[in-house]
């Protein structure tokens, strides 16, 4: 094999490598909490309000023209406090957040044919939960239908969140009422008196 052929082969491999790196850098759009582009975990004490932002990002090569998906959570551990759409978004002519027990359905649609001016990342909504009971509430995104301005489906990477609720360490444990202590004392004396009679 001549030197020229070897050199051309190396150049072709290098070009293929660079192209594959560029494709990975702009792989697919992302739907994540707090624009983390990764799974998110929040720790809270009972009574705290936990707020999460829902973001689309990685839209360098794609635009979001429509979406429909479900967000589910553990209603016993962290019931919904509020869900607010990002009012500054002008791309979507229709935008609904429909609550149900332990879930929210997000749906939106743009009538614009050209969404080339859409930013590469934007906040979709803000959701807050109340930490009500000790436990873990997994906040999961599912049933995703995401499309571009031509209503063609687009692939998307999804990252979930969780809220870990602990007991509040500052919470004071109520002392037993004095009547309860009095009753326990009477029961103890009665039991002691009975054991003495048996002897």
Question: What does this 3D model show about the protein?
Answer:
With 199 residues, the protein is an alpha+beta fold. The chain contains two helices and eleven strands; from the N terminus they run αβββββββββββα. The protein has helices at residues 3-25, 178-198; strands at residues 30-33, 40-45, 49-57, 66-72, 80-85, 94-100, 103-109, 122-130, 135-147, 157-158, 161-166. The strands form two sheets. It has a six-stranded mixed beta sheet, with no helix packed on it. Strands 5-8-3-1-10 form a five-stranded mixed beta sheet, with no helix packed on it. The model is unreliable at 20-26 (pLDDT under 50).
Task: Give the gist of this structure.
Helices cover 22% and strands 38% of the residues.
Topology readout:
Layout: H1 3-25, E1 30-33, E2 40-45, E3 49-57, E4 66-72, E5 80-85, E6 94-100, E7 103-109, E8 122-130, E9 135-147, E10 157-158, E11 161-166, H2 178-198
Parallel strand pairs: 1-10, 2-11
Antiparallel strand pairs: 1-3, 3-8, 4-7, 4-9, 5-8, 6-7, 9-11
């Amino acid at each position: 094999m001549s030197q020229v052929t070897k050199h051309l082969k190396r150049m072709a491999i290098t070009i293929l490598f660079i192209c594959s790196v560029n494709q990975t850098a702009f792989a697919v759009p992302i739907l994540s909490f707090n624009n983390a582009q990764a799974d998110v975990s929040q720790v809270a004490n009972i009574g705290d309000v936990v707020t999460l932002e829902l973001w689309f990002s990685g839209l360098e090569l794609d635009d979001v023209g429509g979406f429909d998906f479900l967000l589910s959570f553990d209603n016993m551990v962290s019931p919904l406090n509020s869900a607010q759409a990002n009012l500054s978004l002008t791309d979507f002519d229709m935008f609904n957040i429909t609550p149900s027990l332990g879930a929210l359905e997000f749906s939106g649609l743009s009538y614009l044919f050209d969404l080339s001016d859409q930013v590469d990342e934007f906040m979709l909504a803000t959701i807050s939960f109340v930490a009500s009971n000790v436990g873990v509430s997994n906040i999961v995104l599912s049933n995703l239908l995401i499309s571009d301005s031509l209503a063609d489906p687009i692939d998307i990477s999804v990252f979930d969140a969780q809220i870990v609720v602990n007991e509040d360490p500052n919470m004071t444990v109520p002392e037993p009422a004095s009547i309860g202590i009095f009753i326990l004392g009477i029961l103890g004396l009665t039991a002691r008196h009975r054991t003495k009679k048996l002897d």
